[in-house]
Here is the input.
Amino acid sequence: MLLRRMIFSSLLCLSLGCTAQLELEPVDETKPDPKAPSSPEPVKPLDPVAKVRCDVQTQRFGAPRVWRLTRAQLDQAASALAGAPVSFADSLSPESATESGLLNSASALRVLDADAISIEAAAKALGQKIAKDHLGELFPCTTDRLADRDCAQGFIERAGLRAFRRPLTDEERERYTDLYMLAAQKLGPEQGVPISVEALAQSAPFLYHTELGQEGGADAQGVVRLSSYEIAQALAMTLWGAVPDEALLEQARDGALDTDEGVSQVAAQLLEDARAKRGVSELYMQLYGLRALARAEKNPELFPDYERLRPALIAQAQVFFEGLIFEREADFKTLMTTADQPVSADLAPLYGIEQAPAAGLTWAARQGRSGVLTLPGVLSSFSSTEDASIAKRGVLVRERLLCEHLGDPPPGAFDNLPERTPEQTEREFFEATTEQGGCAGCHLLINGPGYALDGFDALGAVRLTKDGEPWRTQGQLAGSRDANGPLEGAADMAALLAKSEQAQQCLATQHMRYALGREVSQGDACSLTQVMERWAQGGYKLKELMLATVTSDAFLYRQLER
Amino acid sequence: MTLKLDRREFMRLLGVGAMASAGLTMPFLDRALANPNARPKRLVLFWSPNGTVPKNFFPTAAAQDLASTPILQPLLPYQDDLLITRTVYQGTGDHKTGTPFSTTGYITPTGENLDDPDPNKRPHISIDQEIALALGSTTAKPSLTICGQSKDNRRGFISANADGTRNVPIKEPAQAYEYLFGPYMGGQDPGSQPDPQVDGQAVADVRRAIYDNVLSGLDGLNQKVPALEQAKLKQHRDAIARMRAQVKDPTQDPPEFICDAQNPLAPSVRFDYSERLDKHCELIADAFACDLTRVVSFMTAPAGGDNTNFGFLGVGGDIHQSIAHGCSAGWDALNANDEKMTKVHHFYAQKLAYLIKLLKAIPEGDGSVFDNTAIFWLNECSVGNHGHRNIPIVIAGTLGGFFKNGDHVAEEINHLKLLISMAQGMGHQIDTFGKGGMGVESRVLA
Here is the structure.
């Protein structure tokens, strides 16, 4: 029997204290039997009978919304319009990250002045490129009829469908055709195409994903299902990091997404597409700090190789996640504990490998490595400019793997702090200064995981000794719901997290945050329960978690203003 | 028709040969009026992190020079233009509360708790955006928001939009250049010569029609979404409307000059940290010279100084966790970290001095652009090791005689009143700003 329970536990840790608030945690007390396929299987649609239907009493659905595409998605959208890879969003402002490192927060993605100007320049270039190189695919007539209104309208319909990811309305078709004809008349027939593309690529339906719901489809409580085209967009954005292709748009048109069962089937198909590898792993790249690594700096005197290694660290992580999630059909436990990592010649020194492996990246079990937290790129991202970082790595575990929200240092935390001497390791300094008094409340939660990961330097290389003594990585993971225990090092911590329901639920929460582009709150308890139940059915495979997320009620339904 | 002139040529035509030969710039002709009151006022928030080292920053009572302390020493040539003082922040004196409070008067980090029902717990507009909104479409760009180093969490944003969302700073000078001198200046691409074969009126008509299409789509969407989303769309809409307003009508609008940047930047050019700050200073000067904007928010580094490496100053170590947090209270015995932070703050003083120098070199009326400008050197805390008292403030420039200069106000002033004073100095007559802020700060006014 499914037990759904909201847990908010306040851990008051010693004196001035940190209050760690565990977020929403529905609990499934029935343990499913994990599947163990002998070879990778296609993702199967989920059994609809098991679906728990959420209603307004048990689920706070999101409101109708407009969600600007991220830069990467805009590049994909422009490429879909052109029918060839193009860059569109290079000059747009970088996305700002949430506490979990996610870059697609719908409330933060905007079009402000500088962005509007960059978009205009990019749209202009896109229009010129399509006119020059891709006219034949979109213009339905011969080029001697560039000023013919019927031909112009045909172009607008085709280009508009690609640009807006849905058919144009009658009003839109007329409006853009009028613009085409105005440009053709005033500037010359050959200007109709580039000018109208320039307008299409600056328009709201191109730049934003809308979540307005089926027109007239709201129930008595105002709950409305997203339209089929909106679901197609949402699925493509989440699973592919891209916009729907023509095949998916046709499925939307033909009603394949009109039922929840249909969504499940289509989503399963999308996950089998090659684009899903990059799309699904993007969540992991953001969550585990690899996107932040792209902007992190290190002291060049201490780490002269950092700039050279950084692309390799990011590329390694990409291969790791894609390989784990798709080729290896890994489950949650594997993500947390596997010693297998793909290593290139560039990264071999970080593993103490003297003989360079073959060209490319070679998978093998690596000594001293246990799961995602020991990937060099992850460790490097959660380091300082000078050294590893006990605080950053400890907070990584608490906030992004256990979904605990730690407060900021209390007032006066840094008053009278002794200076760290050059001889002191960071651990020695932390032991002397943070494990008593006002700092202890949070640091007894943070330090244990931080110590466990302290056996890796700021680039993620193993460090075994200091001054002939073994590098100390012992600690304690405390204060969690079910992941507590002594730690000899990273492997122990990985094992505790691997069998922790709190950690599992946290990963599911992160998936929902990513798929919904917003914070997940107590109001999402019902949908989170759906996700956990379905994930359990899928043997806790990572691919199944994404499928469960995009078939949840929170993903498919919105609620109109009350 | 738009004319494109090299600035030296423009100056020569005006008979200001000496300045032309020096390569100096001048605002648009219609701005260079005899009446000082008609000259544009400009505001710069020059923001650096980690407070200061008080002993090496604040002038002593006995000192003859205002700017002879180790940190302020680069500003010595301009000390008569400076007002040095200190403020008090609400909050706990850390980055989380100090960063937003420095510019918004609220302690909620920008972009967080946007939906909190308690308005005191939501983030609010920053003073630069408050002023920019008031100025409306006076200039082509409502404001310029730039940074020397970026951070994508709460530490990386000091400028906030009207709804408390983050106003993202432009880090690369090349992109800031594109933003300022971008393609729609005068309805024509800079760098291109007017084509006599092209009907400028037709180009203007089509350009406006494009914008009208975009606006129509936004308006249609606006009717279908809740209020929070409408606020988001409004920002987009306002940006497009401003772009549309810049389209010139050759048959009706007078010919105008396209004002070029002194140092145009290729899109792909990149700079190291120190040079990046210099380039941003030069872009600010160019923006003021061409009257492209009058409001600038310049975050030299994010709160805590994260991601910023000062090895080039001989300051090794993590600037935030190790050095800043290792500083003393900074008033008496200084430690090695205080000495390191002194070098860093001295570096920022050098950049401020450079900006002052650039603005003083732009003639305006009988003086320079600097005469009608005020630069506020702000911070998120008092010292590297946090603190909300004695937050260091330098006001460079009088904003056309509105602020005092050549003085040290050695008492804590009211920060919210200071923010209100900035607005009033810029001609925006507000009496309240921030949480509980009322009235101007008379101790800094002329």
User: Anything to note?
Assistant: The radius of gyration of chain B is 22 Å.
